[in-house]
Design goal:
Number of helices: 1
Shape: elongated
Radius of gyration: 32 Å
Largest sheet: 17 strands, mixed
Number of domains: 3
Distance between the termini: 72 Å
Structural class: mainly beta
Helix content: under 10%
Strand content: over 45%
């Protein structure tokens, strides 16, 4: 197994030495990574603000987050009262203090904490200029005292950045556990991927692959991946992204059994901050999502249809809009979307056998063309369709149901048509496939042509015979159906097209004048 992780993080202080810190004592016993950490004694009180000086010129944190490890050998106050705090100050003296944890939210021992310095702090002075950060640090509010001169609060490994980039061998499958094992290594302890009660907690962006010659072969199943409840991170901080350059890029969650997706992973946002899931890179070799649950995701972006790209039996619950592209999506459920459940941008979409339940808008259509729905069920949605193409469109549906076929009046007009199938079967010439029967259907009213094509498909109801089929949308009209077979009288029949379509079986009467 080959795995390589490139942290998209910059070290501020790994707390191996006291240099740069305003307070503290080097400690080689309680460290979480490396050889040392830094500690302080705080006796049932609020400590002073502990600062690390990054230099008078300041450091640009734009688009970056501050990562730090904190610990108390005792009891700190609640999160609301600031048991654990992070601190940031700019070159002008503006500062913020973020209450990041406490006895009610943090486990005993070391915990990684993350903040976006651009977020609103719990308390502070002025507005922090994230492009000019001079000091970072921490503060503790303890409820218990340490004996003698014993240190009881500790900090380690301050960094800033966005997350991790993961690569592997071309056919060397890695899992979330492999990534966690690297992060959990005492040499690194990035704090991006941690684990509790068998669940993986992701704090940041995991990028798989790359835009060069990197490879990734990621496959995992039956895992729970959580994005923590943290009001101090940006709305774009959490996510998973797959990139592809010239390397081999394979990404699979779950397992396929026959035509169904099973043993999928649960990806869930615990709080109000959503996570992105971007697998839109068109050079991805394999994308397979089987039996997964996405709960509280933001934007999910898929890629065009191709071999080894499919999403089967997945659930999308309380998510942002899914950008489907033309990827295969079958037997999926879209439930209680934040606004619009899915976006269709091509008439060649591959969304079939899916359910849309309780969404404000089930489907947004952005392309001004006729769109077909096949085996889609709509229940409890405010609107079935929002047409944002700017032009009136038609939606043709086959084997689909809705408690109300409607569209959002905020967009352009949508006309819904039941798409039916016209079938003429039990025909042959006796010399197939060199010569097929031509089947013809016309309107009785004006003799306009509806079908005129060869019966080239084997008839599933009559062995040895063929059939011709055609999709159509008009019902309630009388049509004339015609076909011929050598040695028999011409077949002709008048019939009405119903809402269930048309299925005509030709009946052959021998031609008494036929001479073979």
């Amino acid at each position: 197994m080959t795995i390589a992780i490139n942290p998209n993080l910059t070290d501020i202080s790994l707390c191996e030495v006291i240099t740069g810190w305003s307070l503290g004592t080097i400690n080689a016993v309680d460290n979480i990574q490396g050889t040392n950490c830094i500690g302080l004694q705080v006796k049932a009180a609020l400590s002073a603000i502990i600062k690390y000086d990054m230099g008078v010129g300041g450091t640009n944190f734009t688009g970056k987050h501050l990562f730090a490890w904190l610990k108390c050998n005792g009891v700190v106050d609640t999160k609301a009262l600031g048991g654990f705090r992070l601190y940031v100050e700019d070159t002008s003296g503006n500062y913020g203090v973020w209450y990041v944890g406490g006895k009610d939210t943090s486990p005993m021992g070391w915990s990684p904490y993350v903040i976006d310095p651009a977020s609103t702090p719990t308390t502070g002075v002025g507005t922090v200029n994230v492009a000019l950060i001079r000091y970072v640090g921490c503060q503790f509010k303890t409820l218990t005292s340490a004996l003698g001169s014993t240190l009881n609060v500790f900090w380690d490994a301050f960094r800033y950045g966005t997350g991790l980039t993961i690569t592997s061998g071309t056919a060397d499958a890695i899992t979330f556990e492999n990534i966690f094992a690297q992060d959990d290594n005492s040499t690194y302890k990035w704090g991006v991927v941690t684990k509790t009660f068998g669940c993986y907690l992701l704090q940041g962006l995991l990028t798989f692959g790359g835009t060069g010659s990197e490879n990734i072969d990621f496959i995992d199943k039956n895992q729970i991946v959580l994005f923590p409840d943290n009001s101090f991170v940006s709305s774009t901080f959490y996510g998973i992204k797959v990139l592809a350059g010239s390397g081999t890029i394979n990404f699979t969650l779950g397992e396929k059994s026959g035509t169904a997706g099973i043993k999928g992973c649960i990806l869930k946002a615990i709080g109000t901050k959503t996570f992105s899931f971007d697998v839109s890179d068109t050079d991805i070799d394999k994308l397979q999502l089987y039996g997964c649950l996405f709960k509280g995701a933001g934007t999910i972006t898929l890629l065009p249809n191709a071999t080894n790209r499919e999403v089967l039996n997945c659930n999308f619950d309380t998510c942002g809009e899914l950008l489907a592209n033309t990827c295969i999506m079958t037997n999926c459920n879209f439930i209680s979307a934040v606004n619009k459940a899915i976006k269709i941008e091509s008439a060649s979409h591959n969304i079939t056998h899916c359910n849309f339940i309780g969404n404000p808008t089930a489907i947004e259509i952005t392309v001004a063309t006729t769109i077909s729905f096949s085996y889609l069920i709509f229940s409890g949605n405010t609107y079935v369709v929002l047409n944002s193409s700017g032009s009136a469109i038609t939606v043709q549906y086959t084997n689909s149901e809705a408690d109300n076929w409607n569209y959002d009046p905020a967009g352009s007009q949508v006309t819904f048509q039941t798409s039916i199938t016209l079938t003429v079967r039990h025909v042959k010439t006796g010399s197939e496939p060199a010569e097929y029967v031509r089947c013809y259907i016309e309107k009785e009213s004006d003799h306009s042509e509806i079908m005129n094509q060869d019966a080239t498909v084997a008839d599933d109801q009559n062995a040895g015979y063929y059939k011709a089929t055609k999709s159509y949308t008009v019902t309630g009209i009388v049509v004339v159906v015609r076909a011929r077979e050598k040695g028999y009288l011409p077949f002709e029949m008048k019939v009405t097209i119903t809402s269930n379509g048309l299925d005509v079986t030709a009946v052959w009467i021998p031609d008494p004048n036929y001479q073979p």
